[in-house]
Specification:
289 residues, mainly alpha, Formate dehydrogenase/DMSO reductase fold, globular
Length: 289
């Protein structure tokens, strides 16, 4: 199967990993907002559900393009195999797609005045979809660890890293859209806090990944790690993914918890989105060396 057997994954797969994680993060944030206070955090819930669906739409298309034959994707769905990362990933994508569509549809019906209150149904869809969202966000990291590539197999915490990136990019995307549409009265403060926590976990997971790959005892893993930390991918990793995409928005987020500056929130959100893509891109690229 192309996704597992190709010696070099195309950039489209990096886009799929990024969008899938963002969609999962935005969906979970929307569900939490709806559960905590459906009225107060209504805008957060609305934007999160809409974003989740929009980010998710390209994902099955990317998978089908990578597989080459559309029928292969359908075969992965029909042949359920809990021991196959690809089969589980396809089912998680399918289940999450259904929930994301239903949540966005119910939100649209409420916004258009076609339905007065679908809160109960949205809770059910949100909770079920949240399970699939967590799986979809973390699954690419687990998939990488299941391959024979030394860097990915030797480095632990990839699942946690991808999950944290999904949470940070999801929160950043929701916050950025809220600011663009002028809805900053409620919900932005919790998003700032969530962004800071997600970035801290993200950086911790990167440290665990690098240290475990270094101590794996595999010469091939050590060489692959060297391309990430001091070789051809080091500039993208250190300057792009770590400094610009993680540390800088974390510092801005910590400062902005009290200042609550819209400009700083927008800047931090943009940097997080850039960094979230670069973290996944550079780890995938280095693992194929």
């Amino acid at each position: 199967m192309s996704l597992l057997q190709s010696p070099h994954w195309p950039v489209l797969i990096d886009v799929y990993f990024f969008l899938g994680g963002l969609a999962g993060g935005a969906f979970v944030i929307a569900t939490i907002a709806h559960l905590l206070d459906a009225r107060r955090f209504r805008d957060v819930s609305r934007v999160g559900y809409y974003l989740a669906l929009l980010a998710l739409i390209p994902c099955p298309i990317i998978l089908i393009v990578d597989l080459g034959v559309p029928l292969r994707f359908m075969n992965m769905v029909r042949a359920f195999n809990p021991l196959s990362p690809m089969s589980m990933g396809a089912w998680a994508l399918l289940g999450f797609s259904v929930c994301a569509f239903l949540a966005a549809l119910m939100t649209l019906l409420e916004d258009a005045g076609r339905a007065r209150n679908l809160g109960g149904a949205k809770i059910v869809v949100g909770v079920v979809g949240g399970f699939f969202a967590f799986f979809l966000a973390a699954y690419p990291g687990v998939l990488l660890s299941a391959t024979a590539r030394p860097l990915w197999a030797g480095g632990h915490a990839l699942g946690a890293l991808f999950l944290a990136v999904g949470a940070s990019t999801g929160a950043a995307a929701v916050a950025l859209v809220l600011m663009l549409i002028g809805r900053t009265a409620a919900g932005l403060a919790p998003l700032r806090t969530m962004l800071v926590l997600a970035l801290l976990i993200q950086l911790l997971a990167v440290v665990v990944f690098v240290m475990s790959a270094q101590s794996s005892g595999s010469l091939a893993s050590t060489r692959a790690l060297a391309t990430l930390t001091s070789g051809s991918h080091s500039l993208t990793f250190w300057l792009g993914a770590i400094v610009v995409g993680s540390v800088l928005p974390l510092v801005i987020g910590l400062v902005n918890v009290k200042r609550r500056s819209p400009g700083l929130t927008a800047l931090a959100s943009i940097l997080v989105l850039i960094g979230g893509f670069l973290v996944k891109f550079v780890i995938v690229a280095a693992g194929q060396m």
